[in-house]
């Protein structure tokens, strides 16, 4: 059997190369001339609001969707044409579904393991994701968090070189979330390329080597978490009761104040001592309790909210 064709233009050390990717659904442009590269062994967090084009991009990388324009190359291969060559080298964790509801975790893992030449040990993997006690529980009867952990195990059973993780910690409790982070960090240490889609900005900051923010199918920012937050000038953020009088507070501080999310306020000014005094005085006069205060560069959440909000204003 001849070896599947590869793309000679793929740069050495590149796991995923996306050039001018455009995908439409009728009149909706889901992905709009997207250019993006992921290095071998890199963890990329793909961030964006709902409907930004993240899932469609991953589906094109997996060969599930055909681009209307542009090219996608994964490990030098066309993911649609060379799916047979790529399937043993990639893993995909779906956010939900994908498992027969009457199947048991143990039998599903053993079935998937049979598809690969050198799979991980199903028993050890069940233990690693905390499902040993649920090995004979039907998938439909597992909790949402347990289903997530099984989906993660299925993505890893074949020892993939690239793994796509779609919201991997959704529905997990704190301990299971931390365990999942540790498992992803083990993948990173083994040189596995990870593409992570998440709505949890602290997760992206913790795990990602690089962050790509997509909105309306377009790449609007990318860089390491520290690069993206360092680019922002120093600001003051605090948490308090949602719905404070922003006009009055802005006037008292002589600086713009916004509420990018409920109860989370951003003061667009340097953290001078006098500014903090005025803020404390304004809150005290109204008997408002401050729950948290941060000074310095913006968080990744601040950057994300600002960029996606600004982009939404210019896109019809």
Question: What features would you highlight for this structure?
Answer:
13 strands, 4-stranded antiparallel β-sheet, Alpha-Beta Plaits, 11 helices, Rossmann fold, 2 domains, 6-stranded mixed β-sheet, alpha/beta, disordered C terminus, 316 residues
pLDDT < 50 runs, ≥5 residues: 1-8, 311-316
Number of strands: 13
Helix content: 25-40%
Number of domains: 2
* Fraction in beta strands: 25-35%
Radius of gyration: 23 Å
Which class of the largest domain in CATH terms? Alpha Beta
- Quaternary state of the chains: single chain
The CATH superfamily of the largest domain bears the name P-loop containing nucleotide triphosphate hydrolases
**Strand neighbour order, sheet with most strands:** 5-6-7-3-8-9
Query: From the coordinates shown, what is the CATH architecture of the largest domain?
Result: 3-Layer(aba) Sandwich
How many distinct helices? 11
Largest sheet: 6 strands, mixed
Order of helices and strands: EEEHEHEHHHEHEHEEHEHEEHEH
Based on helices, strands and strand pairing, what is the structural class? alpha/beta
Question: What integer is the average pLDDT?
Answer: 88
CATH topology of the largest domain: Rossmann fold
Tell me the span between the first and last alpha carbons: 50 Å
């Amino acid at each position: 059997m001849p070896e599947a064709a590869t793309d000679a233009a793929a740069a050495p050390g590149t796991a995923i190369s996306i050039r001018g990717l455009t995908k439409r659904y009728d009149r909706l442009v889901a992905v709009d001339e997207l250019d993006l590269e992921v290095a071998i062994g890199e963890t990329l967090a793909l961030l964006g609001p709902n409907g930004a084009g993240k899932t469609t991009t991953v589906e094109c990388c997996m060969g599930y969707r055909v681009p209307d324009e542009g090219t996608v190359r994964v490990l030098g291969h066309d993911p649609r044409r060379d799916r047979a060559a790529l399937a043993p080298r990639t893993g995909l964790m779906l956010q939900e579904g994908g498992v027969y509801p009457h199947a048991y975790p143990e039998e599903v893992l053993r079935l998937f393991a049979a598809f690969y030449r050198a799979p991980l040990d199903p028993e050890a993997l069940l233990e690693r994701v905390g499902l040993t006690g649920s090995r004979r529980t039907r998938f439909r009867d597992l909790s949402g968090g347990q289903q997530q952990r099984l989906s993660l195990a299925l993505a890893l059973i074949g020892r993939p070189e690239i793994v796509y993780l779609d919201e991997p910690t959704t529905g997990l409790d704190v301990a299971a979330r931390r365990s999942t982070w540790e498992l992803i960090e083990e993948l990173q240490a083994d040189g596995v390329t990870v593409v992570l889609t998440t709505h949890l900005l602290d997760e992206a900051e913790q795990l990602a080597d690089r962050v790509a923010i997509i909105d309306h199918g377009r790449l609007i920012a990318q860089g390491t978490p520290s690069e993206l937050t360092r680019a922002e000038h120093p600001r003051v953020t605090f948490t308090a009761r949602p719905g404070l009088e922003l006009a009055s507070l802005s006037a008292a501080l002589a600086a713009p104040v916004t509420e990018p999310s409920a109860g989370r306020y951003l003061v667009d000014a340097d953290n001078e001592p006098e500014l903090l005094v005025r803020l404390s005085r304004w809150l005290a006069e109204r008997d408002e309790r401050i729950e948290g205060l941060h000074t310095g560069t913006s968080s990744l959440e601040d950057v994300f909210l600002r960029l996606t909000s600004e982009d939404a204003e210019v896109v019809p």
